[in-house]
Amino acid sequence: MARIDLNHIRHAYGANPKSDKDYALREVHYGFEDGGAYALLGPSGCGKTTLLNIISGLLHASHGQLLFDGKDVTRLSTQERNIAQVFQFPVIYDTMTVYDNLAFPLRNRGVGEADVDRKVRETLDMIDLASWAKRKARGLTADQKQKISLGRGLVRSDVNAILFDEPLTVIDPHMKWVLRSQLKQLHRRFGYTMIYVTHDQTEALTFAEKVVVMYDGEIVQIGTPAELFERPKHTFVGYFIGSPGMNVMPVAVEGRRARLGGQTIELPGTPKAEGASIELGIRPEYVRLGAKGMPVTIRKVEDIGRHKVVRASLEGREIAAILGEDDHVPADPHVSFDPAGINLYDKSWRVEMGA
Amino acid sequence: MEKTWNNKAWFMVLPVLVLVAFSAVIPLMTVVNYSVQDTFGGNQFFWAGAEWFEEMLHSDRFWAAMGRNLIFSAIILAIQIPLGIFIALNMPRKGWGVPVCLVLMALPLLIPWNVVGTIWQVFGRIDIGLLGYTLHALGFDYNYVNDPFDAWVTVIVMDVWHWTSLVVLLCYAGLVSIPDAFYQAAKIDGASRWAVFRYIQLPKMQRVLLIAVLLRFMDSFMIYTEPFVVTGGGPGNSTTFLSIDLVKMAVGQFDLGPAAAMSIIYFLIVLLLSWVFYTVMTNYDVEK
């Protein structure tokens, strides 16, 4: 296992990139700690798979440097980097048995049969497929196949990191949950460095200690799930994480007050920014619906089981609020914002608020 | 709910029944009819029973043609299948080279068979043919008209030229259907070029290869037009394959009875061998 440093990595698929638009990956400068569990989260086309392939060496970055434990590996091949990668669609060698599938990466590297056997049996236990060892791999279910893909990575005890590229896409919902918890368990027991690419926020938030949110070719925020929820650094993180996403509305700031149309909102502090491009972000969880505050018109109420999502209109803008399952929508509805959940954004990036 | 029975539905399959009857069943039955009778012309037939079949199965001429045909098919498969796979593996997967290669590969398949025969018949002539003349000028004693070996080489090279493309195109179709992730995973697993072929590409091509082997076997086993045009079955009987012999017997000598018996034996052999191929190759698939 190794620490992975991305040193000003940029990547363009075409030759001679001119503007920022030509880069699939604009600039990534970050270090993945040894033994950490990371998720790369972002919408399709944001560059997360590109970044993953750069780490595994399937792609070579057009600019920047990649370090494993301080050693420059930028120009090394996939094989020399010693990386394991699990792909979106399970890759198995269908003419081989489960056992031979797992032995394949070891045999390719010239490991002796005695060691191969020991390692393969260990791995089979780890991924719970010991009783399937002699079976042909082609008859297995999607989740078993994906476990074999993973197993081929785990079997090499010296891998620097295990990379996952949306590995649960083709897995049935209830098996997704099982596999995800098995992955977490493996991580806890063996301390692999794991990087997990996904566009599913639940997957990212439950799997990772640290979530790297990417948008349009760059990293917009890196943080724990709680940080991403409470303090989204960029309005995109606010929208993308949470269900429904954060409410964002343009406001005019005057000292400790923000003006939204005819309404005034008390801020928890004085923002260190002003101007025309200031927006206020508040998650639906922090919007209180009651008899006091700013008047709203209710558009609809969605009951999604554990709670209700209220869609309302405030000063002509859509706003979502979360209401407890047993709470009722008041007859003359008003909303107020919990100061703990208020974030301010200037040109989409979060600004700090002083006392 | 009660099911409605309506036998009028049978009329729907009538056209196809009539078509198949006239194109296949009736001619086949005619052949069966001939094979158990004798005729001396004048539309007079006498019952002959299994006589023609016995004669055929004891005929050296028949078994010699059969032997030549089996050897021919074996050589054709041994050359065209590996060569086809090799070319398919080396064809480009993207870019402008793809349509160019596909068109080049498809060209020989689009040429009518007798034209292929004529092309090679002329190509190989030592007086005016580019190939024959050049070989001669280089000092090779090449002459497909006199030398059985040269005749065989010519017919085989012609068939390879004509039909390897089919194997290539089938294999290529199998290869391009392999997702990139397989190659990427193989890289990560440290697989060699050979391992990639053996464990990824070959298994993915298995189905199309089965079809390629079957088609090439049946086609080569029933080959007629091209060697007929090029060598006419000669020199001697050296390139007289079953179909050529059959035509000689039926049309040339007007031995309808023996020719009909031979047709049926020939047909059964093709059917049997195809069934064996198919069963063996699909069983292999299931077992593994």
Describe the 3D structure.
Chain A: It holds the Pfam family OB_MalK. Chain A: Residues 4-241 form the ABC transporter domain. Chain A: It comes from Aminobacter aminovorans (Chelatobacter heintzii). The complex is a heterodimer of chains A (355) and B (288). With 355 residues, chain A is of the alpha+beta class. Chain A is built from 9 helices and 25 strands. Chain A has helices spanning 48-56, 78-81, 98-108, 113-126, 142-154, 173-190, 201-207, 225-230, 235-240; strands spanning 4-11, 25-32, 37-41, 63-68, 71-72, 83-86, 161-165, 194-198, 210-215, 218-223, 247-250, 252-254, 257-260, 263-266, 270-271, 278-282, 287-290, 294-295, 297-303, 307-314, 317-324, 334-337, 342-346, 349-351, 353-354. In chain A, a hairpin with a 3-residue loop joins strand 19 and strand 20 (307-314). In chain A, helix 3 runs parallel beside helix 5. Chain A is elongated and about 75 Å long. The model of chain A has no long low-confidence stretch (mean pLDDT 84). Chain B has a single domain, classed as MetI-like fold (Orthogonal Bundle), CATH 1.10.3720.10. Chain B is 74% helix and 2% strand. Chain B has a two-stranded antiparallel sheet. In chain B, a hairpin with a 5-residue loop joins strand 1 (37-39) and strand 2 (45-47). The mean pLDDT of chain B is 83. Chain A binds chain B through residues 56, 58, 77-79, 83-85, 87-89, 91, 93-96, 104-105, 108-109, 136, 149, 152-153, and chain B through 179, 181-182, 184-185, 187-192, 195, 199-200, 203, 288.
Keywords:
heterodimer, A: about 350 residues, alpha+beta, Rossmann fold, 2 domains, four-stranded antiparallel β-sheet, 25 strands, about 25% helix, B: about 290 residues, mainly alpha, MetI-like fold, two-stranded antiparallel ribbon, 12 helices, 2 strands, ATP binding (chain A), P-loop_NTPase (chain A), ABC transporter (chain A), nucleotide-binding (chain A)
